[in-house]
């Protein structure tokens, strides 16, 4: 009897120890890096896909990405900019992802995208994900609540009280399973606390950056208001008018340069200006250039070497292209000065190529 009790006690202790070890192992990496586990959410920089849903049709005038959202997740994108519109069916419990107008680019129902995100989060318990919503159609928080609940994401939703400056660490968010953060640019209210008003926590640099102009480090939204975190909008566009609306045209042919030397320079300049790292580094055509490698250096971690799907890789997985200098800066249009990310650590993979004007064929 004593021996049986002893064996039972040892078994319980071993089981508890095994569970503790599993929990410890689960915290060894957070968003791919052990060093990020102890950092609070607001002290981490996240690779961000601008208009992440806008990957189809390929090479369309309004297409901002090449890869679909499951591929973006696999490649290390951890924040997603999405635009919400009313569903064509008129169903108030559904939301459509569209670019400017649904007849310009229709990214399909939100339910499909959330299902993909849930699949990834279920399979990858050490990842913290962020969605940044543009509420273009002034939808109600209850509509978002319905779609998220139907997708089974409710257990993952993190709510941060307005005015609360102390964010949890990534490890704490992972342990609690509250690791899906949602910001919305307008329409937030207290009835859905996890759908947080973006500009209570985050400011944004200007997003309308015409090709051939400098990348700005000014506060665009909310106007002249510093916040705890910020979005570095880093994508260039051409424009044309359709049915009285001005449509921004993404520039995929320039993305090697835009997301390579120009991105480094823009980050350098804004870190100098704001004295804080960019929380969300938002780009078009993320597989070009060196987004995840550059963000790793912003986070002061050694890049894990995961190259983006479809990247045209040079040395160390970086993309060749652009007219970068050996110190990581770049010259000409859409370039900003900076010195925080320097040549030996970042820019060695960039080879100079001929620069030229991009012609829009409409």
UniProtKB/TrEMBL annotation:
Keyword Signal among UniProt keywords: yes
GO molecular function: phosphoric diester hydrolase activity
Keywords: Signal
The keyword Signal is annotated on this UniProt entry: yes
Secretion signal span: 1-26
InterPro entries documented for this protein: PI-PLC_domain, PLC-like_Pdiesterase_TIM-brl
Gene3D superfamilies, per database record: Phosphatidylinositol (PI) phosphodiesterase
One GO process term, biological-process aspect: lipid metabolic process
Name of this protein: PLC-like phosphodiesterase
Organism: Linnemannia schmuckeri
């Amino acid at each position: 009897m004593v021996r049986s009790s002893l064996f039972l006690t040892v078994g319980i202790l071993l089981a508890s120890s095994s569970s503790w070890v599993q929990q410890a192992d689960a915290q060894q990496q957070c968003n791919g890096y052990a060093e990020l586990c102890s950092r609070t959410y607001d002290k981490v920089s996240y690779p961000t896909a601008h208009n992440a849903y806008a990957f189809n049709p390929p090479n369309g005038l309004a297409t901002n990405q090449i890869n679909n959202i499951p591929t973006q997740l696999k490649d290390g994108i951890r924040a997603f900019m999405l635009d919400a519109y009313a569903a064509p069916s008129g169903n108030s419990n559904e939301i459509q992802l569209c670019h400017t107008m649904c007849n310009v680019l229709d990214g399909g129902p939100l339910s499909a995208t959330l299902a993909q995100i849930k699949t990834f989060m279920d399979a990858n318990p050490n990842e913290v994900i962020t969605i940044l919503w543009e509420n273009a159609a002034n939808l109600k928080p209850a509509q978002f609540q319905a779609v998220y609940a139907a997708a089974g994401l409710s257990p993952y939703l993190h709510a941060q009280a307005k005015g609360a400056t102390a964010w949890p660490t990534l490890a704490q968010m992972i342990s609690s399973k509250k690791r899906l953060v949602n910001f919305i640019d307008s329409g937030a209210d207290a009835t859905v606390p996890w759908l947080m008003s973006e500009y209570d926590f985050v400011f944004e640099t200007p997003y309308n950056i015409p090709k051939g102009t400098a990348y700005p480090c000014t506060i665009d939204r909310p106007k002249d208001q510093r916040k705890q975190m910020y979005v570095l909008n880093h994508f260039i566009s051409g424009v044309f008018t359709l049915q009285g609306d001005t449509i921004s045209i993404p520039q995929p042919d320039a993305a090697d340069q835009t997301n390579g030397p120009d991105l480094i320079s823009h980050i350098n300049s804004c870190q100098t200006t704001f004295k804080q790292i960019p929380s969300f580094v938002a780009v078009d055509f993320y597989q070009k250039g060196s987004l995840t490698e550059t963000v790793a250096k912003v986070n002061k971690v050694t890049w894990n070497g995961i190259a983006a799907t479809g990247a045209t890789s040079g040395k160390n997985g970086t993309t060749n292209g652009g007219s970068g200098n050996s110190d990581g800066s770049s010259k000409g249009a859409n370039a900003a000065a900076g010195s925080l990310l320097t040549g030996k650590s970042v820019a060695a993979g960039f080879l100079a190529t001929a620069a030229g004007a991009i012609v829009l064929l409409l």
